Amino acid sequence: MNDGNVMRLRAALNGANGKAQKHTAVVADILALSNRAERSLIAAGIPGRARAGAEVVWHAAGPMAKAYGYKMTRTYLTLTRGTRDWFLTEVKRVGVYPQQSERYRIGISTAQRDHIVATALRTFEVRNTADDNVAAAPAV
Description:
Elements: H1 6-17, H2 27-43, E1 55-59, E2 72-81, E3 86-96, E4 103-107, H3 110-121, H4 130-136
Antiparallel strand pairs: 1-2, 1-4, 2-3
């Protein structure tokens, strides 16, 4: 995402939201989502050059009131990470049930998963103990 795309982002949102003014995503939501996803990938240990291709999907939570008996229509966003920026690749309207939580998921490749695992295990060393050998031995 970059500020030069604000008009195109606004046009895409208007196309999906139609005349709806309440409970819709705005450009600030897209920018916040791209920043949040980028921070998540950084925290997971994926280096900048390897973040391309990650995809984040998001919609806001449903209404909190139990008395709200119908689905609330929200804006559903999909952003895809390029080599340097995030790009809006899908925007649509979805129904969200009362008390349904926010949807925030990041899809990653197997190579990105491997970076996460390597980062998580960087400070650990797997050792073979006597208990491991006993557990692996067949019962007589």
